[in-house]
C-alpha cells in the first residue's frame, strides 16, 4: 500500500534519514520504534507528505504521493502529530467534526450522518462527556483523545500516529490500542504508529520497524525482531523476557541492574566535547 524507495533526508547537510526502503502492507498495525532522535517523526512526516524536502520516493496505492490532490490525500490518510495546540476556542464536538472537512463542500452543512458518526467516534474515544467543553480547557490526555477522535472522523484507510498515547492513562492507552487494532482487523485499515513501549508493540503490532541513526536496522514480527540482543545494540539497555501469566506471551523487562547509563552518558559527553 505504501512504498518507500531510497528515501534520504538531510538538514543542514546532517543526514536525518538514510536510504529508507520499506513497504507498508494494507490492514497491518506497524509500530515505528527507535531511540530519541533516530528519525521516527521525520519519517512519518515524509510518509504522509508534510515533509517534502527529501530525495527518493513515497508511493501510495501505486501512485506517487505527490500526485494526489490535497482533498484526495485527506480522504486516504490521516496524521496525528506528536504535539499540537488547539489554537481556537472550539467546543470538543466542533473540533472533532472538523475531521469531516475532506468530505464537505465549501458551504455544505453538517449532515445527520456526520452527527451520528461524531457521536459514535466520541463515544469510542471516551470524549462524549467533553463535547460542549472548550478544547482550550481540556486536560492533556482529554485533548489527545479529542485529536484522535478528529482523525478517526476522516475515516481513512491509512492512519499515521506519532506517540498518540503519551499523555493517556493506562485504561485509555489500552482502549485506544484496542480500537486501532480493531480497525486493522475489521476494516483493513493500515496503522503506522510511533511507540516507545516494547510491551505495547509486542501486544498490538503486527510488524515493527526499528530505526537507529536515521536508518532501518531491523523490521518484522515484534517477537522475532525486538530481541534483548537487538534492543541492547540499539538502545544500550539490557532487557530480558519475563513470563506474564500461564497463557500469556512473555513480555520484556529491563534487566536489573540497568546498565551503567550514567557512565555511558558521561562517555558520550566527552566524545562530543572532543569534537
Ligand atoms: N528543523 C530541524 N533542525 C535541526 N535538526 C532537526 C530538525 N528537525 C529534526 N531534527 C533532528 O532530526 C533528528 C530526528 O528527529 P525526529 O523528531 O525525527 O526523531 P524521533 O525519532 O521522532 O525522536 P523522539 O523519540 O525524541 O520523538 C533529531 O536529532 C532532531 O534533533
Automatic annotation (TrEMBL):
Name used for this protein in its record: Iron complex transport system ATP-binding protein
SUPFAM superfamilies cross-referenced by the UniProt entry: P-loop containing nucleoside triphosphate hydrolases
ABC transporter domain boundaries: 2-238
A molecular-function term among this protein's GO annotations: ATP hydrolysis activity
SMART domains attached to this UniProt entry: AAA
Matches recorded under Pfam families: ABC_tran (PF00005)
Record function comment: Part of the ABC transporter complex HmuTUV involved in hemin import. Responsible for energy coupling to the transport system.
Keyword Nucleotide-binding: yes
Residue ranges the record marks as coiled coil: none
The organism's place on the tree of life at top rank: Bacteria
Assigned keywords, A-Z: ATP-binding, Nucleotide-binding, Translocase, Transport
